[in-house]
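Homework help thread (please don't just give me the answer)

Our assignment gives two proteins as sequence + structure token strings and asks us to describe the second one. The first is just a warm-up. Here they are:
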Amino acid sequence: MLKTVLTPLTPVAAAIGASFLQQVWWVRGIEGAAFGAIVFVFIPLAINWASSRSNFVTLRVDCAVDFLPTTLPSEGRVTVVQLRYAPEVPHQAGQVSQGYGAPGQNTEWPPRTQAHKCEVRNIGTVSVFDVAVTLTVNFREVVRSPSNPVEWVSGGVIGTGNVSIVAPRLEEKIPFSFYVTNTSPHVAVVAAISAGYAWPGDGTRPRLILNLDPMRLMNFAPAGT
């Protein structure tokens, strides 16, 4: 391969060398210094830039309105993020629960329980492990109509918190799925989604880039409505 690449360049290199030798000594010195700068400075910088551009992993997150599953899927596992505002636990927005069992087994979730189903995809060829996906959630008060208590509107923000879920492994084109539901008596709005390694990187791990549609972030009515 090296011979194949270098052979077409031989006449070019010869022409450059002949032109170089025809210059006066001080011009050759300047040209030599410039060539040395290219070889020893700019080429390594270009290599480092290309390396930094390739050392990243792009994740895609998509969430859509759904219901909590009433039976376990074929893989026999379901993961649910239960949003809940707890003033006594600052900066927390809920908890993560996982159900295991035989495929088709009852999950004990009531039918038609409001939820969003989220899928995290690795858009690339490099597998990554233990990626924490964090939801930032705003909880808003429920303002009910004086004339009709059944009617309500979303009020001011009463608290904000985070809840994280860890994807143990993200391979190319194999999504990691989880559900999000609101178990609080407040309106829950997922204001942002972020991702990162569950532990600090050592400089050798790829940098994560998160790709999502901010217009499709999740909004939840109060539980039981």
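The one we have to describe:
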Amino acid sequence: MRRALAVAALITALPAAGQPPMPQVGDRWTYRLTEPDRRDGPAERSYVVTVGAVARGEILDQVSIDGGTSFATRHARGTRLLAPVAGVFSPYLMVLESRPLPVVLRAIEIADPACTGPALCEVSARVAGWESVSVPAGTFTATKIVIEQSWRPAFATSGVSAGARVLTVWYAPEMQRAIKYSSRLAFGDSPPMEANFDLELASYRVAPGPARVIAAPQPPQVGDNWTYRITDPKQPQARRAVFVQVASVSPALIVEHVSVEGGFTMPWRHARGGRLIAQGVSIFSPYLPQFEKLVVGGELGYIESTDPGCRSLFVCTAKGAVVGEETVEVAAGRFTATKVMVQQSWRAAAGASKDQKELARMHGARTLTVWYSRELKRAVKYQSRLISGERVPLEADFDLELTAYQVK
């Protein structure tokens, strides 16, 4: 029996546009499998995956544990909770999906015999953002997905008790496969599957894909202008307009005049480097492709947080990456755009408070997604979403999109 749980909320999040290339036949990943509850053998074993075939958007691989008999698994598009030893979740998710991933994943297939017969299982998953994760093979910037699986008896005399586990998965684009799984029993005495284990990448042999550099746009010209609309996703009726016009252009500097909802016009200077700045809301370097070479899948360099809220009570840090190219639709039209994602986090500055609960509330993070149009020479859309935190140094939930423009 196969069961799926459709999760309602759909929020644009980490995309698959510009995803890593498909693995090649012979690619191999060696993991360290740790099962602390195992009683019939060593708690730590070797888990080796080898690609046997790749065709028509499917991947066939072979898994061997401690050099024993290998078993084959076929992987296709979609999200699946699998059944082999140390049951895992869609290991090639990031290379097989051709559409953007939502924050909350939908219709997860449970392909695990443990969830048939006496046990009924349900599962949900969400994209938790990016983080740096260390495994024996190295340290990677990875996409983190959290899966919650629960089970209950299918009938009164099934002998199954209710329970649940949390499975966390990390995907690193350059590895083309999940690099770490961590499963922990949340509650229950006798789970129908292995519920406590870690599967960590120890070594790999992966054919590198060619780096794809995104062509830089033509520089803007004096007089080019763009009008944007800022909205709060929780209060769509609350809108503000932002008007931007180029005042001067040189190879090293773009100067523009910015006014927010008819307020005072302020000059802004943009040069090389990634910066989070306050233009009505906290946005990221609107002319980034003009000054930086953007490589699909590549990480951005140092990002400076210049928001006023990050200068007193809070300490802010940020990191980012170039996701790829995709079509984005805004009020001003439909454009092919380069997609960049920035994750900003903050914590209380020294001396901000002596209350430990208050200090904990001041820790948080947000994800900011930016779409740059080569045709329009500037960012055409920003989407910011709060990931965690109760006290924030800036407006963390907003959409900013282009409504009108004039470019030469």
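TA reply:
I won't write it for you, but here's a hint about the kind of observation we're looking for: The chain has two domains: 3-205, 213-406.
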